[in-house]
Amino acid sequence: MLPAGEAQFAYLNLSARREAVRVREKVDAWFEGYPEKSRDELVARFRSAIGDPHHSAFFELFLYHLRLARGRQVIEIEPALPHTTKSPDFLAENGARERFYLEAVQASGLSSQDVAARARLSTALVAIDTTPSPLHFLDLTVSGSPSQPHEAGPPIGIRRTPVMRIEPSQCIRPALKKKASRYGKLDHPYLVALNGLSTHHNEEAVIDALLGTPVMRISRGPNGEEIVEELRRSSAEGSADQTGANSHSCHCR
Question: Can you give the residue ranges of every domain in the chain?
Answer without folding.
Answer: 112-160, 212-251
